[in-house]
Amino acid sequence: MSNSTPPLNPQISSLPVYVPGRPLDEVAREYGLAVEQVIKLASNENPLGPSPKAVAAMQQVIQSLHLYPDGSAFHLKKHLGATLDVDPRQIILGNGSNEIIEFVGHAYLAPGVDVVVSQHCFAVYPIVTALFGANLITVPARGFAADIPAMIRAITPRTRVLFLANPNNPTGTLSSHGEIAQLLSEVPPHVLIVMDEAYVEFLEDPANCLALVREGNQPNLLIMRTFSKIFGLAGLRLGYGLASPEIIAALERIRQPFNINSIAQAGAIAALGDTDHMARTRANNRLGLDYLQNALAQLKL
Asked: Phi/psi of residue 171, each to 5°?
């Protein structure tokens, strides 16, 4: 009898591993501190916590956890569509935005396919590219920001996906309206533009990419957003994608049934209606941003 294990797919051996920020209690334990003394900045978690309305809604669902969730998340898509003024058929839900990225991998990536990203991009883009055996083209950043013209020039006939986070994680840089307009107009139609807008709600003047999806004017655009940041629901793992009904229908074929649990669906619906919590989060973030910039300037950094 052999002691060897079955051979893995070849790309697994070189696959990078995403290392998330460690839980607060683990850090506190390592340094002999109380959990209350530790502030974790690595994961961009909402310091105000979750929406109180979301917490109340989630508590009501607990008594019915013996039942399967709504597999199509009908009510959540309906509320999200009404909030964003998009057809529910233009929405797909994922176990965090990471699952949306994996949907893209299943649908578009394979050996021999090129993926274009910027240097300092979100770590999951290269991981999913490698997972599906595709070729990663990393375009050097310009001042820690995405060099949009260079990313467009990096596209080849084999390119199928271009990932761009705006604002970018982890550098916090923001592409201008003009750069986004150039990207959307010059990327050829055979390339899916995946616009990661996890932090879009914090912007005072965001590029209105959603209007292009809403009106059907950019059929090669997929926008990703999340409930983890401004809504303070990172622990629920709930993200969503916005695209043409044709793209969404293709991704729905890949999605596992019941990927969004009952608690997440109830919490997200309630959070969408808690505009006060969103406003307080946005205001608190602005105060923190001003404080950080002023303190760094005083330190001459």
From this structure: -85, -20
Tell me what pLDDT residue 41 has.
81
Q: Is 32 left (phi over 0), alpha (psi -120 to 50) or beta?
A: left
Q: Please give the DSSP secondary-structure letter assigned to residue 95.
A: S
Rg (C-alpha) for the chain, rounded Å, is 20
Count of beta carbons in the 10 Å neighbourhood of residue 212: 18
In the chain, domain spans: 70-274
| pLDDT tens digits, one per residue of 90-121 | 999 999 999 999 999 999 999 999 999 999 99
Q: What is the Cα–Cα distance from 291 to 240, expressed in whole angstroms?
A: 32
Cα–Cα distance for residue pair 264/95, rounded to 1 Å? 9
Which tokens sit at 26?
């683990």
Q: Which tokens sit at 177? A: 């309206």
3-state SS, residue 164 = strand
Query: Which distant-in-sequence residues (6+ apart) come within 8 Å of 124 by Cβ?
Result: 18, 98, 101
Fold of 70-274: Aspartate Aminotransferase; domain 2 (3.40.640)
